[in-house]
Amino acid sequence: MSVLSFENVHISQEGIPTLTDISLTVEAGEFYYLIGKSGSGKSTFFKSIFGELVIDSGAAQVAGYDLVTIKNQDIPYLRRKLGFVFQDFQLLTDRNVERNLAFVLEATGHKDQTEIKTRIEAVLEQVGMSNAIHKRVHKLSGGEQQRIAIARALLNNPVLILADEPTGHLDPEVSIEIMDLFKQLTLQGTSIIMASHDYHTIQRVPGKILKCEGGNIVPVNSL
Ligand SMILES: Nc1ncnc2c1ncn2[C@@H]1O[C@H](COP(=O)(O)OP(=O)(O)OP(=O)(O)O)[C@@H](O)[C@H]1O
């Protein structure tokens, strides 16, 4: 089964159609860049995926949940199947890496401290940051902070990561390292959609591209 499947999906914001007749699928382990001008609907697409915006018509499934019929009480469970990565990392800068990650697990119902520690060690290893477990977030470089943010996104074993301009605050070389990490995650079966204006990185690290334009989202072969 696809990780994401949209068929003839229409979405509006405040009664104004924003995305019209979207049909696309994302399979396990696929990586997509999502490009498009400001205001073209990239955030709208992401919001619909995590249940923040209602689908007006069409059929849409994400991580095994039907977005048309999903009940409000199931939206937190849908979101646990997704990982989120942001341009500005959105880490808690007043605490260390371990507390940043434990916070998420505790907020999603995990109580067993041994299990929490084991999971934190596993995701830090996945992102190559095992040595940073006791470090304060504000002492880390931008690239290291983004790795911790990716570790946080991985905590609940997401099937799909939504990354919103994740290289926007990173220099070109560090951006490439983050892209390498994303590629490794896709090889392990996680799907990733990365909204980006970072054409330098897209050119250096080619991948499948979805373009958001004129209310539609379609695969394109080049920028
Ligand atoms: N809360 C809202 N209420 C009404 N219209 C909105 C709302 N949020 C966004 N829109 C409109 O929906 C359209 C798509 O906006 P969206 O934020 O999805 O674009 P975007 O591609 O993510 O832009 P950016 O790259 O600047 O983040 C725009 O016309 C915008 O004005």
Automatic annotation (TrEMBL):
Q: Which PROSITE patterns match?
A: ABC_TRANSPORTER_1 (PS00211), ABC_TRANSPORTER_2 (PS50893)
Q: Which UniProt keywords apply?
A: ATP-binding, Nucleotide-binding
Q: Which GO terms describe its molecular function?
A: ATP binding
Pinpoint the ABC transporter domain residues. 4-223
SUPFAM superfamilies recorded: P-loop containing nucleoside triphosphate hydrolases (SSF52540)
Q: Name one Pfam family in it.
A: ABC_tran
Report if keyword Nucleotide-binding is assigned. Answer: yes
Reading the lineage from the top rank, the first entry is Bacteria
Renumbered to this chain, the signal peptide range is: none
Which InterPro entries does the UniProt record give? AAA+_ATPase, ABC_transporter-like_ATP-bd, ABC_transporter-like_CS, ABC_transpr_LolD-like, P-loop_NTPase
Q: What is this protein called?
A: ATP-binding cassette domain-containing protein
Q: Which organism is it from?
A: Aquirufa regiilacus
